[in-house]
């Protein structure tokens, strides 16, 4: 089975909240990823920006680059997004990645101190048209390098809910736009992750595994807190440490014939959740559930 396991650096150092894990170095993060039993990582802001230098750190540790986040502003400024995307694509291609994580950030409140449940943006009809056509063009650019874009549905953005994911999928060419499946964001939003996976299994080309602490999630909703406040207070955790039952999710993944990366991505405050200990906890749980 061609499934590979990786872990994202956001548990060690948080790009959106630089104060979380500012003391943790790039070398520490990748060494602990390897020690915990993972073979892949995504790219954080402390990673070297030159492919040869980055490879010189990763290869001795048996690590590969699975992908990296790209903040798209297809609706707000497509031409600037296109230029930035090409540079991002070329870097990931040089690192051997096959997928590019894309999330539309026009109107996003995920980085703002606004209620994540009450103030989520809603795209207009015209904005939906801009988004779907623009994503298809980015998909074509990815194909030039034999790569694919995987769209990351995300809390606090215009593509978060089941209805929004369905609209995106139904109005884009499957040959040009694929989907990233993120268990944590779906549950946080109140969606059914199994429904999404099963409906779009043939378009899912990248997976983020994160768990949810139910009491923290309920507090975020009840107290009208922001996404980043929720992160700091521990809404997310690694698989096996929260409310999500990953056994049926794994059965759906296995049955689908999925091939690609499954990435543990659980942004937490490393001062409260030691990233190495939680990485090992995730690896043990994944082994128990999947046998991988």
Describe the structure.
- It catalyses: scyllo-inosose = 3D-3,5/4-trihydroxycyclohexane-1,2-dione + H2O.
- Residues 33-280 form the Xylose isomerase-like TIM barrel domain.
- InterPro entries: IolE (IPR023952), IolE/MocC (IPR030823), IolE/XylAMocC-like (IPR050312), Xyl_isomerase-like_sf (IPR036237), Xyl_isomerase-like_TIM-brl (IPR013022).
- Its cofactor is Co(2+); Mn(2+); glutathione.
- The chain has helices at 26-36, 51-58, 78-94, 125-143, 162-170, 183-189, 193-200, 214-222, 227-232, 246-256, 275-290, and strands at 3-7, 40-42, 64-67, 69-72, 99-104, 148-152, 177-182, 204-209, 211-212, 236-237, 260-264.
- It has a seven-stranded parallel beta sheet with strand order 1-11-8-7-6-5-4. It has a two-stranded parallel ribbon with strand order 2-3. A two-stranded antiparallel ribbon has the order 9-10.
- It has a single domain, classed as Alpha-Beta Barrel (TIM Barrel), CATH 3.20.20.150.
- The model has no long low-confidence stretch (mean pLDDT 97).
- By secondary structure, it is an alpha/beta fold.
- The radius of gyration is 18 Å and the shape is globular.
- Strand 2, helix 2 and strand 3 (64-67) form a beta-alpha-beta unit.
- It is built from eleven helices and eleven strands.
């Amino acid at each position: 089975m061609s499934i590979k396991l990786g872990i994202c650096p956001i548990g060690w150092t948080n790009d959106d909240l630089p104060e979380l894990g500012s003391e943790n170095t790039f070398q520490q993060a990748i060494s602990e990823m390897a020690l915990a039993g993972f073979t892949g990582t995504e790219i954080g802001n402390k990673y070297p920006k030159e492919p040869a230098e980055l490879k010189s750190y990763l290869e001795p540790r048996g690590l590969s680059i699975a992908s990296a986040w790209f903040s798209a502003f297809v609706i707000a400024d497509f031409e600037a997004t296109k230029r930035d995307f090409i540079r991002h694509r070329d870097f990931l291609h040089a690192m051997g990645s096959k997928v590019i994580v894309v999330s539309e950030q026009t109107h996003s409140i995920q980085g703002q101190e606004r209620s994540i449940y009450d103030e989520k943006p809603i795209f207009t009809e015209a904005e939906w048209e801009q988004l779907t056509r623009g994503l298809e063009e980015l998909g074509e650019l990815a194909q030039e390098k034999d790569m694919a874009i995987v769209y990351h549905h995300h809390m606090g953005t215009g593509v978060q809910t089941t209805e929004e994911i369905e609209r995106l999928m139904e109005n884009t060419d499957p040959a040009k736009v694929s989907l990233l499946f993120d268990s944590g964001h779906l549950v946080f939003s109140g969606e059914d992750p199994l429904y999404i996976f099963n409906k779009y299994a043939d378009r899912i080309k990248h997976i983020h595994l994160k768990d949810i602490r139910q009491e923290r999630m309920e507090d975020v909703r009840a107290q009208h807190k922001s996404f980043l406040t929720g992160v700091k207070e521990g809404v997310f955790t690694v698989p096996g440490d929260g409310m999500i039952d990953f056994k049926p999710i794994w059965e759906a993944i296995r049955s689908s014939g999925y091939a690609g990366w499954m990435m543990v991505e659980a942004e937490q405050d490393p001062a409260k959740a030691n990233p190495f200990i939680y990485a090992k906890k995730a690896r043990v749980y994944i082994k128990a559930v999947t046998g991988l």
